[in-house]
Amino acid sequence: MIKSPGSIRFSSATIHKLSECYQIDVTADSGTIVIFSKKPGHGLNCSMCKDEGPSQTCNSNLRLTEAQPTTVTFNCSQPGDVFNVEINQEIDCLTTDCSIIAVHPDSTRFLEFTRTFTWDLKVQPGKVFQLDFPSPGMRQIKPSESCPDKHTYTITVYQRTGPANIGSFCRNGTISRIQVLYRGRVTLEVPRGTDLNPSDFKVSMGPTATGVVEMDVRLPRGPFSVDFFTPNYAKGYYDEQKMKWNFAVKPMHNFTVQFQHYTPPECQNKKVVCDYALGDKTSFTVAPTDTQPANKQGDFSLTLTTCDVKSVANVSGLSLNFNVEVFRSGTPYLWTVDLWNKEGLSLQIENKNPESYCEMSLNSVTQEKIVVPAGTKADLSFLDCPMQDLQLTATKVIDCPSVSARDLTIPTLDPSLPLPLHQFTWLLRLQDQGTVDLMSPKGSKLHQSLPDKQCNERVSLLISETEGSSIGQFCSVAEGTIQKIQIKGNVSITVTPKNIKDLSQEKEPFLQFGISPEIMENVIYTVSPLISGPMYLATPNWPDSMNPSSSASWIVYIPQDYMAELLFSNVSKPKCDSGHTEVSIGPLDSQGQTQSWREDQSFPSPFVQQQSFYLNMSNCEPKSDRFAVLSKISLQKETKKLLGIILAIVGVLLLLIIVTLIVVCVIRKRKNKPKTNRSSIYMPRGKPVLPGNAGFPKSRTDNESHVYASIDDPTMYRHSDKNQPAEVDNGAWSNGHQVDAYHPFMGPTDSVPAATDSSAEYALDRREGDAFQPFLNPPNTFNLPRPRSPLVSQGSLGFEDRRMMDNALNTFKSVGDINPIRLSADESRLQPQMDSDSDTHTEPEYEEAM
């Protein structure tokens, strides 16, 4: 038993290459044997020695089994021409189940030698050892053939009659599993100078043996053909044993078995027979010389039973080489395509479902993808191809010699076309240096489809440069913003349906194109932002990087009375290997200032433009990262004219408010005086009446007609100033109106007793000569009684006359300084007439002066 059957370790710590000597150090793992053997008839003068000094031994063959460093010396400079190396491992499953042991030869040493890796496999009697190969499996070859990758596997089985070669195998085949009786050997041979690249097969103990060998084969989709060989092919197999092949066939496929080279043995008894089993129920037996199964469906197995061959010299054994072919079943659909009269139009058909069993043919040749060139006629065949799995695309090449505008429309295809048109591409090729101008043909504008604002139209247009660099996805909408796209050089335009299934039904033009002189930039967009919402500008090939050393420009037209706010919302900057990236903004009239920024500078955000402008972006030769920019433009009303209008309106409103406030204040002061503070009394002869809306329902003793609310207007009593005599007034203070003269109450008149107050604080100073002129000339038809002056606090006495409007009479300037009220000359001549109340009632209380 070995500790690690899948691990082999070799080391050459010291390598000496002298003119006549080659020395290596070798260390093998436990259970691994390294054998150096001389090729027959080579290098008679080259010997091989183990170790050095007195313990050195030399021989033509060297077998190393110790798990310790061993020095091997060759007395020739090219030992690989003389010696082979074999690395051997034993995998013993007699005492264990050997459950799936992976074999990984990992030695990259001994490249100077032809290397042979061997695995000796042992299992319990009556069992088989099983080899599982990774996909795509192994392919059996003739013993005389070699493998393309120079890695040849050989499987040998040991029987009582001697070893038998099960076969030679290469990688990349259809055999997924091989089971071999009892014990055997797996060999991998790699020639000198070839790096080791082994197949990681797995080893395990299989079930009870039913024959000398059994192979599991997975046949691929047809058409396909593969060969198989019996053990000891060409030499002959002599033992009476069974050989079995199990075939897995794909659905919708038929198979046919053909015996190509058959050498019958000389049997002592019995015969060679072939047993077939189709599925789980059908089985039959035929002789090797009979016709083998043909055009059958489903999985099947073939068991070949040999006979007991005579053990006589020069008697041939069994040799068989048979072939299995698989092909598609069913009836294909045929369709003829004629593109002779379709200038520049070609068709492509591809199966998009790799799991389906669709088989397509072009002119009877099976194709994975069918391409019908322009100007040709072809016969197509479809076998078991669901229409939903097939994709039809068309391409039309247009040479553009003129500058006249043309529409891009899909040409009429064959009405018998069984497939819907999934995609159509125009290739616009310029004969000379020029620019392709693309516009919407319907009077609308183009819209670029971006993650935040994708196209929801019937179709989507992918515009690219013919070198493969994408400009972007676009659609033609009523509220688009792109008036024109100008692209330098040849252009590719691909239309793909979004809300429809068949493009061939679309008859309207998708785009209009024209030719103009060559531009400096790779692409120029002419755009008009919307007032209703923002507009996004994306660099070509967004969100991926712009092409190195390429440039793009946007010509942005701003409506009158609007300004644009440009925001760089998403910016990816590269690290430049040569040159710099640059972003420039400037007005279209070439009168304003142009501003620009590089990748090592920060972009302003937002950037405001008050007139139409251009935006240019150019990429450098990036060393790392990428250059991609997404910008947003929003329109706003121009603020200059609007501000002037707003200020004018505000000024007018303020003026109206001021005038209104003045008027309201005047009206309120004239009309909205408190009714309880009546200051002037008009008493015609007869029944007393109050002017205005109020009257006197009571006698004087019951009302407040004689109460003075306030007299507090120094401008009306300039004579109260001690520095201004009362006689020098000349009526200026009264605005030219005569006012009533008022004398302060000094005591009772006639028979009315004088009112006295014990408090010295209320002593009144008697003054003569002060004149009080009324606003209205008093009538001569009645006498106005003189009101009594109450003996109250000096600060609370007030008087108010309704006829005096807004004038207030202040009788006292300060506490303790009494200012007498003058009566007019006319009133002074009148004799006071007291009400009857005044003789029998005391004076009512007066309000405090406000």
From TrEMBL:
The keyword Transcription does not apply. InterPro entries: CDCP1 (IPR038811), CDCP1_CUB_3rd_6th (IPR056266), CUB_CDCP1_1st (IPR056268), CUB_CDCP1_2nd_5th (IPR056269). The chain crosses the membrane at residues 642-667. This is CUB domain-containing protein 1. It comes from the Eukaryota. Keywords: Membrane, Transmembrane, Transmembrane helix. Residues 101-205, 422-503 form the CDCP1 second and fifth CUB domain. Residues 220-313, 521-633 form the CDCP1 third and sixth CUB domain. Residues 579-601, 823-850 are annotated as: Disordered. Residues 23-93 form the CDCP1 first CUB domain. It holds the Pfam family CUB_CDCP1_1.
